[in-house]
Amino acid sequence: MKQQILGFIGAGNMAGSLIGGLVSDGFAPGNIWVSDVDAAKLKDLESRFGVHTSQDNQVVAGQAQVVVLAVKPQTLQTVATGLAATVQQRQPLVVSIAAGVSEAALERWLGGKVALVRCMPNTPALVKTGATALHGNDRITEEQKSQAEAIMRSVGLAVWVEREDLLDAVTALSGSGPAYFFLMMEAMESAAIALGLDQATARLLTQQTGLGAARIAIESEEPPAELRQRVTSPGGTTERAIQAFEAGGLQGLVEQAMRAASARAAELSRQLGG
Ligand SMILES: NC(=O)C1=CN([C@@H]2O[C@H](COP(=O)(O)OP(=O)(O)OC[C@H]3O[C@@H](n4cnc5c(N)ncnc54)[C@H](O)[C@@H]3O)[C@@H](O)[C@H]2O)C=CC1
Ligand SMILES: O=C(O)[C@@H]1CCC=N1
């Protein structure tokens, strides 16, 4: 993998995070090529990581063994159809990180048979704590599977799902999930201010509590329900708060929200080419 040429089409936030992760994992920047229509984005990645750049997508796709499609979903059809001839001729592994664009649409746009991995990453990839789910079509080899996984693992956790449609559930969970935690943090911070704390203190304590809870959950063998019980002294303060959450139907509300997100992911896939 480390000897191969890796090409990124699109030099935005996610591409920058993935390249940063790969370079800090020891992937040679000289083996990374990036294209974008925006020269400033390319200059930035060139100066931060020492990668090669071009404003021509063909230059990148024309030499990479692995091509990562990192443009916005709405731009992907134009970009992919523009690369079809090169991809059909060279048959690289194509990795798409675009939300809501199906493997069928990608294959169609790329002119037919292609080894393809579709991923759903999330924004914590920016700080190397991303969570990505991957799904590959039946044309990928074991080596290509490892290559795609290594790219996504360079910025966090990477797991495979067995069916492509499960990426809609993943989108509702880890793709959109950071926003749910931020919403909870917003609500906790506001409530703390209402209880008399100043904003800076409320924010700091909220942030550290989120970090601490996430670390315990990751490092412990116990399920979240058990960890919650440990905070909840009988007849104490947490119990009262949990009773209020339950009375407000928090669990049902979370399920409703995630079903809505998953349905929207499926709808977007249909709108973006089926
Ligand atoms: N940001 C997020 O939370 C997540 C993003 N993704 C996916 O990652 C992909 C990239 O997202 P971001 O990096 O956030 O977007 P971004 O907007 O930062 O980057 C996209 C880049 O594509 C470039 N571009 C536009 N047209 C182009 C063309 N014809 N040829 C080459 N480059 C072109 C733009 O100049 C821009 O630099 C999207 O498909 C998105 O669905 C997936 C999960 C989470
Ligand atoms: O909100 C969205 O549609 C995208 C997909 C997952 C995170 N952001």
From TrEMBL:
Record-annotated residues binding NADPH?
57
As its record notes, the protein acts as a catalyst of: L-proline + NADP(+) = (S)-1-pyrroline-5-carboxylate + NADPH + 2 H(+); L-proline + NAD(+) = (S)-1-pyrroline-5-carboxylate + NADH + 2 H(+)
Q: Which UniProt keywords apply?
A: Amino-acid biosynthesis, Cytoplasm, NADP, Oxidoreductase, Proline biosynthesis
Residues reported in the UniProt entry to bind NADP(+): 9-14, 70-73
The GO cellular component terms are: cytoplasm
> Any idea where the Pyrroline-5-carboxylate reductase dimerisation domain is?
164-268
Highest taxon of the lineage: Bacteria
Q: Which residues form the Pyrroline-5-carboxylate reductase catalytic N-terminal domain?
A: 6-100
- Pathway(s) it belongs to: Amino-acid biosynthesis; L-proline biosynthesis; L-proline from L-glutamate 5-semialdehyde: step 1/1
List, alphabetically, the Pfam families matched: F420_oxidored, P5CR_dimer
* Its EC number(s): 1.5.1.2
User: Could you mention a single GO BP entry for this protein?
Assistant: L-proline biosynthetic process
Q: Where in the cell is it found?
A: Cytoplasm
State the Gene Ontology terms under molecular function. Answer: pyrroline-5-carboxylate reductase activity
Q: Which SUPFAM superfamilies match?
A: 6-phosphogluconate dehydrogenase C-terminal domain-like (SSF48179), NAD(P)-binding Rossmann-fold domains (SSF51735)
The enzyme's main class, written as a single word, is oxidoreductase
Question: Which protein family is named in the record?
Answer: Belongs to the pyrroline-5-carboxylate reductase family.
Which PANTHER family does UniProt cross-reference here? Answer: PYRROLINE-5-CARBOXYLATE REDUCTASE (PTHR11645), PYRROLINE-5-CARBOXYLATE REDUCTASE 3 (PTHR11645:SF0)
User: Which purpose does this protein serve, as stated in its record?
Assistant: Catalyzes the reduction of 1-pyrroline-5-carboxylate (PCA) to L-proline.
Q: Which NCBIfam families does the entry mention? A: proC (TIGR00112)
Q: What is this protein called?
A: Pyrroline-5-carboxylate reductase
Native organism: Methylomagnum ishizawai
Its ancestry begins with:
Bacteria, Pseudomonadati, Pseudomonadota, Gammaproteobacteria, Methylococcales
Q: Which gene encodes it?
A: proC
